[in-house]
Amino acid sequence: MARGNGMLNHDLLPDERRVQEECGVFGVWAPGEDVAKLAYYGLYALQHRGQESAGIAVSTGERINVYKDIGLVSHIFDENTLNALSGDMAVGHCRYSTTGANKWANAQPTLGPTPYGTVALAHNGNITNTRELSRLIGELHGEETKGEIRAGNTTDTALITALLDNDAHDSLEDTIAELLPRLRGAFSLVFMDEHTLYAARDPWGVRPLVLGRLERGWVVASEQAALATVGASVIREIKPGEMVAIDANGVRTRRFAKKQRAGCVFEYVYLARPDATIKGRNVYESRVEMGRVLARENTAEADIVIPVPESGTPAAIGYAEASGIPFAHGFVKNAYVGRTFIQPTQTLRQLGIKLKLNAMESVIRGKRVVVVDDSIVRGNTQRAVVRSLREAGAAEVHVKISSPPVKWPCFYGIDFATRAELIANGADEEQIAQSIGADSLAYISEEGMIAATEQPREKLCTACFTGEYPIALPDYKDLGPEINERDPGRHPEILEKRAQALSTTES
Q1: Is 410 flagged in the annotation as binding?
Q2: Coil, helix or strand for 175?
Q3: 10 Å Cβ neighbour count for 117?
Q4: 169 contacts 178 by C-beta, under 8 angstroms
Q5: Is 461 annotated as a binding-site member?
Q6: How far apart are CA 116 and CA 132, in angstroms?
Q7: Helix axes 143-151, 156-163, angle to 10 degrees
Q8: Pairing relation of β-strands 64-70 and 242-247?
Q9: What is the CB neighbour count within 10 angstroms for residue 129?
Q10: Which ranges of 426-480 does DSSP label H, i.e. alpha helix?
Q11: pTM for the complete prediction?
Q12: Is 237 helix (H, G, I), strand (E, B) or coil?
C-alpha cells in the first residue's frame, strides 16, 4: 500500500547520533476480529517505546498488505487506512532508529519474499553480528542482492528478513529455527507469513516480550500495557531462547537456544511503562523503591522533593517517603510535547525541554529543592531543569538520580550516543553538578538499583552503567557500519571491555 503524506522527513535533519530508546512490537492472530484496529491500539499503548515511525502489516490469508510511515501512530493511521487493512492476522511496529537512518524505507514491519510465501517482520533490539549476516546473504543470493538491501533498508531487521528467503528447508518455520541461533545481540521479534504468527526472543531476554489471550485469538507484544489495551489477558512472558508459532492449529513453541537471561535493567529504570511487570516485578514499585534507596544512600537538607515528570515521579515519591521531606509537584508538564530524550537534533531537544516543563514559582520560590530524575545521559534535560528552578526562585537545587552514571554505549537496542557525549564519562559527581548548575548531585548505587528490581544481579544487563557486556561483542570490524557510526572514535576502553565480556555462547 502507498505511504502516507505530510510527514516530517527526518533525513533532512543533520544529527544522526541522537539519544534514543528502542522499539515496540505487536502481533495479533484473531480470525473474525478487526486485527488492524487491534494492532493500532496496541501500538498506541507502546508509543513510548518509539515515536519516529510506525507500521502495520495484515494478512488476508492469501497476501500481506502493509502500511507504514514516518511519524506517530495517531498521525499515520486514520479510519480509512485501517479499514483498508482487513485480514485475520496483523504485525505492528513503532520505531526508534538505533541502527539505520530514520527514513521511510527503514520503517517496519519489513516485507520480504520466501519460498513459502511472504514474511512481514518487526524487531525490537539490536543485532551485533550484522557483517556476518550480510556475508550469509551474499552467499545465499549474491553480492548484488546484498548491495540492494543495504542501499534500501539499512536496518538489521532487513538482514533478518532477507535471510528467511532460503529454500534449504521444508518450511518457513524450519528456516526460522535454523536462523535464530545465528543471530547475536538483542532481539524480540514478531512476524508472520500468510497463515502463521511467530514470536521469538533472544537467549538472553534483553528486551521484553509477552503472550496474551483474546476471547477469539492471541496477542504478542513488547509490554503488558498493549495486551490490556486490546482486552487480552496476560498468559506469560515469551521465554529467552524460545520461538512461538500461532495458527489455526493453536499455539506451539520451540526452544532454539539455551536460556541465558540478562534482561535490560534500564527497562526498570526508564524504558517500560510504569504499569508493566517484568519477570514478576512491577516496574512502578521498582522505581518507587529506587527512590527510597536513593534517599537512604544520599540524604539532603531540603524543604521539598519534586520529580522531573513523568519519568522521575515514582522515584521522587519513594525519596520523599524515605527521607520525610514533603513531596510536591514543582513542574507543570505540557502533555502535547514528546519526550525530549528522543528528539532528533540538539536544537530541537533543547527547545523541547523548554516547551515541555514549566516550573511553578509559587511552589519553588525560597525553597531548598531536591529534584529527582531517573537518569542523566547528556545532561541537557537536567541543565534546563536546574535553570528553570533557579529562575523560579529556588534557594538550593539538589539533583538526585535513581540510576547509576551512564558511562557506556548500548549495543542491544538503546542509543545512548557516543561515550564522548555521555556527561558521566570522565567526570565525577561534583563536576557534573557544576556542569548542570546544581548545588549537589547524587546517584543511586548499582547495588541499590539492582536490589529495587528484585532480580538477581547475574540475571540483568547493566552494561550501560558498568561496561560489562553479557553478550560478547565481536571485533569492531564485525559490528557493522551502522553500529560503528554510533561510536566513531572506536574507543580502546570498549575493545577492552569486549575482551572482558562473558564468553558464554547461546547454545
Answers
A1: yes
A2: helix
A3: 16
A4: yes
A5: yes
A6: 25
A7: 140
A8: unpaired
A9: 20
A10: 429-436, 446-453, 463-466, 476-479
A11: 0.84
A12: strand
Query: Of 203, 254, 210, 273, which Cα lies nearest the Cα of 48?
Result: 273
Which three cell numbers mark 390? 533557579
Judge whether 94 is annotated as a binding position: no
Output the DSSP codes for 70-87: ES-HHHH--HHHHHH--S
Specify the 3-state DSSP secondary structure of 189.
Answer: strand
> Which residues on neighbouring strands pair with residue 187, listed in sequence order?
125
Across-strand partners of 415?
A: 20
Of 10, 18, 23, 160, the active-site residue reads 23
For residue 373, say whether it is annotated as part of any ligand binding site. yes
Hey, what's the cell of 55?
A: 507500521
Provide the Cα torsion 122, 38, 85, 250; round to 10°.
Answer: 70
C-alpha cell at 244: 512461538
Nearest by Cα to 324 from 289, 296, 352: 296
Residue 313's Cα: distance from chain center in Å? 20
Which ranges of 120-271 would DSSP assign to H, the alpha helix? 130-141, 143-151, 156-163, 172-179, 224-229, 265-266
Q: What is the pLDDT of residue 425?
A: 86
Instruction: Report the C-alpha gap between 479 and 292 in whole angstroms.
Output: 39
Q: Of 300, 439, 308, 304, which Cα lies nearest the Cα of 373?
A: 308
Q: What is the DSSP letter of 411?
A: S
Q: With 0-12 CB in 10 A as exposed, 13-18 as middle and 19+ as buried, what is 40? A: buried
Return the number of other C-beta atoms located less than 10 Å from residue 468's C-beta.
13
Q: Do 40 and 92 meet the contact criterion of CB atoms below 8 Å apart?
A: yes
CA dihedral for 233, 236, 241, 246, sign (positive or negative)? negative
Here the cell at position 57 is 502489516
Instruction: Reduce the DSSP state of residue 304 to 3 states and report it.
Output: strand
The SS3 assignment for 284 reads helix
Give φ, ψ of 179 to 5 degrees: -80, -40
C-alpha cell recorded at residue 64: 500481506
Q: Are 302 and 369 in contact (CB under 8 A)?
A: yes
Q: Which residues pair with 263 in a beta bridge?
A: 460
Report the DSSP pairing between strands 396-401 and 368-373.
Answer: parallel
The question of whether 94 is a catalytic residue gets the answer no
Q: Residue 24 and residue 122: Cα distance in Å, rounded? A: 9
The mean pLDDT values, 10 residues at a time, for the chain of 507 residues are: 30 29 88 97 94 94 94 93 96 72 73 94 91 85 59 71 90 94 94 97 96 97 96 97 97 94 94 94 98 96 95 97 97 66 51 72 97 92 93 97 93 76 89 96 98 96 93 61 42 46 32
SS3 of 206, please?
coil
